[in-house]
Amino acid sequence: MALAFDEYGRPFIILKEQEQKSRLRGLDAQKANISAGRAVARILRTSLGPKGMDKMLQSPDGDVVITNDGATILEQMDVDNQIAKLMVELSRSQDYEIGDGTTGVVVMAGALLEQAEKLLERGIHPIRVAEGYEVASRIAVDHLERIAHKFDFSEANIEPLVQTCMTTLSSKIVNRCKRALAEIAVKAVLAVADLERKDVNLDLIKVEGKVGGKLEDTELIYGIVVDKDMSHPQMPKRIEDAKIAILTCPFEPPKPKTKHKVDIDTVEKFQTLREQEQKYFDDMVQKCKDVGATLVICQWGFDDEANHLLMHRNLPAVRWVGGVELELIAIATGGRIVPRFQELTPEKLGRAGLVREKSFGTTKDRMLYIEQCANSKAVTIFIRGGNKMMIEETKRSLHDALCVARNLIRNNSIVYGGGSAEISCSIAVEAAADRYPGVEQYAIRSFADALDSIPLALAENSGLQPIDTLTAVKSQQVKENNPYCGIDCNDVGTTDMQEQNVFETLIGKQQQILLATQVVKMILKIDDVIAPSEY
Ligand code: ADP
Ligand code: MG
Predict the structure, then answer these.
(1) What number of other Cβ atoms are within 10 A of residue 362's Cβ?
(2) Best exposed site among 16, 74, 172, 515 by fewest CB in 10 Å?
(3) Whether the CB of 422 sits within 6 Å of ligand 1
(4) Which Pfam families does its entry note (predicted)?
């Protein structure tokens, strides 16, 4: 088996045995599957942790993505093998459920597969391995509950939330600004959170980015920012106390359709048509004014003549606003989207304290800020950065941080990171293995070894001696009976993750273990692979 790169720099996996055979059975099948899964895990292993490496992936059309996020790396890779695809799915499901921990889950699954291979070689039946893993995963998940901490937070004391988000961001490229970004993420989540129901609708947080400025200029806006400008340069740049009509219907005179026949054979007829068109639009503008609108936001465009008229009649307008943005604007301003022009009424107007146009740089780039909205439950995180790749990666990193903050609002339990939780689970699982008389105990012990792979990878990626560091930390945990000792990746001087403020969410860690075990069990249970021999 080898990992190769095609002419676009995309990695792919070559499974030598599978080129000749169309069918693999029994142990051969399991081994081939295991090595495919492990190959994927090996790619991600170096990306784990605060000192993890980033990957640069180039798409066939030349787009470059630089990322540290496990789910994104796998998403961008063209994986051909079906088992390797399962690992991609694994990372994706962690991303859907939790948002963070997408690298760790794959590394964990890879380690479980590696251990399983050894067990299979010793002649243990795959089903016994799968059963042992199941038992062990339950022990580990229960143990996590025991070492987890609950913390209290309120809107006045958001520090614990910020610290946890900072741990998530510390392994990303945006590490430099983790404090500021973590605060933005927490404030954004709290702004849209329903603390009574313990739920957060992340759809209400709009993440917008624009190239230029510095990462430090990234800001949270209590309102909506849209990448659009007023349709006419002479319209006002600033509207206070705006009453906004949000239209998804055309805002222009109806165009003659080609299937109707309009005979215009005299100048007079043309004039009448023109006047009628003008009058039609003039009536529309008047109707907007009558209901009290001071700004019109349309999904569709209108032509230059209409634009000119709007300017004359002093009704600012914004055109070509996307559907998702319209919905957010409607939520934020408490307005209703008007799908038929006749239905426009004063109550359907949205309200915002301030709508302003802001220009950036020297490129005549303008954006529209809608602030001080009637219902502030919709916010925008506006990212600035040196280039597009940086902005995209910041978006992904913020997604992780937002998910972590949301998970903490749902369940405010945390475990300590830096591999400390895994080491503690490993010790607990190892100890529990003795209670099982059957062959499963081998699998349970192997599960404990697999848990060690996370701290090992963290140490290795930080340039430490992996085995030495792990054994030292492990014996410290046992000696001091302190489950918070982990790998000191940043060379702070203490292994106590409680002191270092390295937190992760409990549900995230539990989900990692459960998902990894599930996939590994599934892979182990495949003993026959029938695939087309040529393609
Ligand atoms: P994932 O995609 O799985 O979240 P990351 O690259 O974000 O992968 O790495 C997360 C791992 O790094 C976790 O095990 C976490 O505990 C660890 N980690 C994060 N920050 C630190 C730190 N400052 N010191 C030690 N370990 C850390
Ligand atoms: Mg992370």
Answers:
(1) 7
(2) 16
(3) no
(4) Cpn60_TCP1 (PF00118)
Q: Which two tokens stand for residue 529?
A: 């692979």
In the numeric block, which tokens belong to residue 484? 């918070």
Determine whether 527 is an active site residue. no
478 in Cβ contact with 453 (< 8 Å)? no
Catalytic residue of the set 67, 72, 100, 102: 102
pLDDT in tens, 15-42: 665 555 566 778 888 888 899 889 989 9
Output the CA 145–ligand 2 centroid distance in Å.
Answer: 20
70 Cβ below 6 A of ligand 1: yes
Reported confidence tier of residue 104, pLDDT bands at 50, 70, 90? very high
Q: Rounded CA gap, 443 and 113, in Å?
A: 11
Closest residue by Cα to residue 100 from 124, 70, 120: 70
Beta strand segments in 238-392, E? 238-247, 295-298, 317-318, 337-338, 350-360, 365-373, 379-385
Q: Which ligand is nearest to the CA of 164?
A: 1
| Cα–Cα dist 111/136, whole Å | 14
Check: CB of residue 302 under 8 Å from CB of residue 251: yes
What is the Cα–Cα distance from 385 to 378, expressed in whole angstroms?
A: 23
C-beta atoms surrounding 219 within 10 Å: 14
